[in-house]
Amino acid sequence: MKHYVLLFCDPGIDDAMAMMLAIMHPQIELVGIVTSYGNVTKEQSIINADYILKVAGITDVPVIPAAFRSFSEFDEEAYPEIHGSAGLGSIIPPNHFPGNRVGFDTIRSILLTYKQNLTIIELGRMTALAKAFNLFENEFRYIKNVIVMGGAFFMPGNRTPIAEANIYGDSVSAKFIFNYLNTIITPLNITSQAMFTPALMQRLASHPKFGKTIQALLSVYTAYYKENQPHLPGPPIHDIVPLLVMVQPSLSTYVYRDVDVITNGKAKGMTMIDLRTMSEEGRHKIAWTVNADRLLHEYERAMFTGYADE
Ligand code: RIB
Ligand code: CA
Q1: Is 60 exceeded by the pLDDT of residue 309?
Q2: Are strands 252-257 and 284-290 parallel, antiparallel or unpaired?
């Protein structure tokens, strides 16, 4: 089965890795990239999305420049210490590619073209997604799924002691989305369980299309995690997880709950669910456990599909 994907992202190293997976995966067709502030500025995110498409030799996937600021976190800044000075590890992409840039209204056309075949995957702050849903509510009714990388349930966050970065970055937009849309959520609980280990990175470095790019991306990401979280075998794979779970839902187990987001005070960005024994099922399908070995196996398999030395 083919999955038609409209990717909302903030590339960013793991977002770029997710773009490359979407391009390589035989069961995924990337139909558009909506790119916003987050790991990098909005302007840089556009350049970076264009750059990855250019490396892939793709000219027909539209890039839709979207949000430049959060609706609720006005001091949100980029993260060069994690993602590199331009957000792509040691790569400084030239900023003069023509690119296939189109207006925000293209999201509506994509919703109408693909309808029940379309999956939206959100890998960053939900500002642009909230804006699109607020504008095109009727068109959203027909689509297949919205899958979100974000949230941290009953575990430490990565942006604050209790908040995950994507949700913290625009907690109001996240609350809005979780209030009105059914989603599938791949939270930090599972996206931080698989890493780019040295052995995996070595194999990825030999990738015929993206090897050099991946090497340059992951060098900076790895250095950051080595210094700041030396107990980990490598940097976490976060943003590639929603794509893999979309294609193979059995990689994960799920709980179904309503989700609330705290939008102010010390707990800002915290994602809350009721898991008490008497609690009821809710509207979101939350990936709860993951088979990390199988996940990485499927990742590699998809990346190398179609190459003789697979
Ligand atoms: O918390 C992980 C998320 O924050 C990922 O999407 C990463 O790219 C950063 O945006
Ligand atoms: Ca991201």
Answers
A1: no
A2: antiparallel
